[in-house]
UniProtKB/TrEMBL annotation, chain B:
The lineage of its organism: Eukaryota, Viridiplantae, Streptophyta, Embryophyta, Tracheophyta. It comes from Hibiscus sabdariffa. This is U6 snRNA-associated Sm-like protein LSm8. Keywords: mRNA processing, mRNA splicing, Nucleus, Ribonucleoprotein, RNA-binding, Spliceosome. It comes from the Eukaryota. It is found in: Nucleus. Plays role in pre-mRNA splicing as component of the U4/U6-U5 tri-snRNP complex that is involved in spliceosome assembly, and as component of the precatalytic spliceosome (spliceosome B complex). The heptameric LSM2-8 complex binds specifically to the 3'-terminal U-tract of U6 snRNA. The keyword Iron does not apply.
Length: 130, 98
């Protein structure tokens, strides 16, 4: 039993916990690194439907609605627009895209999409060993 | 339930691939796998430059290794036909640096 009381549960934090538990059942950890993957995987699943900006390692930045994410943190965005369209006209005719996880540098989130306390708590628990 | 990348919805569609070395290749997605290796039919590369318009180099049937893929975008044919590629000037995309 933890000695300090758990943080207050908001509606969104309850939703995240449920997805996190679901993910732990459907994606059993394999040796090594899986634990960190599940945490952010669950977190992104909770963010589906929100508008995010993905900055890639080649400096391209794509804004769109988060459609789905997978275990490799590959991201599918809908209704995409490149942030600096004059500099990067290469994707002018693309409206939906699949972004490989390995090429993502940042995912810029809406400020009200982040429950800092909850993530901090879950990360601390993961670091301790689940 | 280890599902691969959700590229299934893009099979048989025209897609625009951005590779790690900054190239843009357009073609019809024929197949893919868990590692994001893809099979692209009727592909051509679009070379962007600041001096002349977009050059299109015909490639044919290609397999692109997943390691080298950055973005797979669904090309909207209507939007694409409205583009005047011969008048488009841009710096080529930068390569991916890990």
């Amino acid at each position: 039993m933890k000695s300090n009381s758990p943080p207050p549960r908001t509606v969104s934090s309850f939703h995240f916990r449920r997805i996190y538990k679901q993910t732990q059942k459907t994606h059993p950890p394999f040796l090594g690194r899986a634990i960190e993957i599940m945490l952010f995987f669950s977190y992104f699943k909770d963010l589906v439907g929100r508008e995010v900006t993905v900055e890639l390692k080649n400096d391209l930045a794509i804004r769109g609605t988060l459609h789905s994410v997978d275990q490799y943190l590959n991201i599918k965005l809908e209704n995409t627009r490149v942030v600096d369209q004059d500099k990067y006209p290469h994707m002018l005719s693309v409206r939906n895209c699949f972004i490989r996880g390995s090429v993502v540098r940042y995912v810029q989130l809406p400020p009200d999409g982040v429950d800092i306390e909850l993530l901090h708590d879950a990360t601390r628990r993961e670091a301790r060993g689940g | 339930m280890a599902t691969g990348p959700g590229l299934e919805s893009l099979v048989d569609q025209t897609i625009s691939v951005i590779t790690n070395d900054g190239r843009n290749i357009v073609g019809v997605l024929k197949g893919f796998d868990q590692a994001t290796n893809i099979i692209l039919d009727e592909s051509h590369e679009r070379v962007y430059s600041t001096k002349e318009g977009v050059q299109q180099l015909v490639l044919g049937l290609y397999i692109i290794r997943g390691d080298n893929i950055g973005v797979v975008g669904e090309l909207d044919e209507e939007l694409d036909s409205a583009l005047d590629l011969s008048n488009l000037r841009a710096h080529p995309l930068k390569p991916v640096i890990h």
